[in-house]
Amino acid sequence: MTTGTSRRERFLFTAYALVVLGILFLPLVTVTLASFSRKRYFSFPIRRYTLDWYDKAFQSLTIAELVRTSLTIAAIVTLICVVVGFFGALAYARYPWRRRKLYQKFILLPIFFPQSVLGLSLLLWFNFLGIIPTWKTAIVAHLVWVAPVATLIMAIQAYGFDRSLEEAARDMGANGWQVLREVTLPLIMPGVISAGLFSFLLSWGNFPLSLFTTGADLTLPEWLYAKMVSGYSPLVPAVGTLTVLGVAVLVAVGVSFVWLIRRRGWKG
Amino acid sequence: MYEDLRRTGILCSLPLLILLAVVFVAPLLVILGFSFMPSKSFSLLHLPTATNFVTLVGAGYYKSLLWSLGLSLAAVVVLLVICYPLAFAMAKVFGPFTNVITVLVVLTLFVPDNIRLFGWVLVLMKGGLISGGLRALFGIEMDSLLYTVPSIVFGLVYVYFPFMLFPLVLGISMVPDELRDAASDLGASRFTIMREIDVPLAMPGILVGGMLTFVLSAGAMAESKLLGGQKVIVMADEIETAFTYGQNWPLGSALSVILIGLIGVAAVFVLKRIDLDQILGKT
Known about the structure:
The complex is a heterodimer of chains A (268) and B (283).
Chain A: H1 7-35, H2 52-59, H3 61-93, H4 100-112, H5 115-129, H6 135-159, H7 163-171, H8 176-205, H9 208-211, H10 220-229, H11 235-264
Helix pairs in contact in A: 1-11, 3-6, 3-8, 4-6, 5-6, 6-8, 7-8, 8-11
Chain B: H1 2-34, H2 51-58, H3 62-93, H4 97-110, H5 113-124, H6 129-138, H7 149-173, H8 177-185, H9 190-201, H10 203-218, H11 222-226, H12 235-243, H13 249-272, H14 276-281
Helix pairs in contact in B: 1-13, 2-13, 3-7, 3-10, 7-10, 8-9, 10-13, 12-13
């Protein structure tokens, strides 16, 4: 607690935080409400409730296919981003090399670029290379944005650790690979898990990068957008709610995992 | 030993640098190349020409550009005002409660923007949560709150909220408590402390947050489409139209190059003024 934060101020700050959080979650709550409404088009207050839309969503082959595509893309993106980002983060935060400051800023650049433009430029690039866009090219597209984010998250973790631990291991005769596996990786583990979680979910939910790069294939966010803009489907709220639920479960699992590692240590 | 660490650093950076060269730098070069190709061509094998940029100036695209920039600027200002008190509380007041807020905010970030904006459509539309609720409770009839310029700004503020909040929290965390206490002991008011100490020392975070949200808003499209109902045509919209309906890649590329150029200038301006080790290393 700093400079005289009185009880009243604390209360005001807390109230403000709760209001902001309430507004952040209001649209998600509304989508959930709409998913239980029997009417094809949502109107409030809801008169009759139903679970039919969930039934239909689970039975729909289209949606199963969309989910499968989105999950596959997200899984591969996560794998690549965590591996590449892990080394990228070490270079970012730890080793004293000459061009490091420049490197740090360059890594940030893709995050600042509008994703729709990045997606379009990738489309031109694939065209130039003679590659026909499918869901596989969307993986490449997602990497542009997700890899830097994953790197940053692991870099923040890498800043926090004591370099002398690695030096000690090296002095005691561990080779480079052993130091990496036995010392560096366990220490950065919470960051690796967070980065994996971020990569997976950011890829899963991404729309602007997928839009131009999936060709004839569709991801779930693309389908949702198409149905919102034209040809509304009453399955949209149900699918949206399920997505929110899935995200919440994954985040809860991830957070408790990181918390456990922080308390017990990796392999502890 | 030192030489050894340097080599390891360069080695570690290579995979990421190669990846970004292939998926980030190369595509941008291709789009730059296309912007100088003759109108409606689909390959890079023509003689370069500047006609696209000439057409562009004549065709009134500056309106979309101004809309994009104006909307983004409005979103950034609103975001600063909304996020600052919360970020301050998260950095200096809340303690463990900060982690709870962080997780909850991050959670919303993972829900596809489309779903969240669709939720707002359901809240704001005629017969939606607000207007339907008011009618049922008080019998007040009101119109849809959608399809106006403020509703677009609202959408931008909502979607990019975390991108302002977290940099601000990092920035304000960098302000040393001793300095604030000392100023307070010497008789500085709360407002003076904020103006003379908090804001200047948190400036790197403020700059990053401001630039990040500005740039993301400038390239945004879904907000104006879903909440604005195409009342305003923004830059990203024009670019998409040129590529899809227009089938004019060079024109779309030229529009993209202008947007990218503006963003590049903003990015360099901010990145020159901050030290990333200082911001990220603190946490």
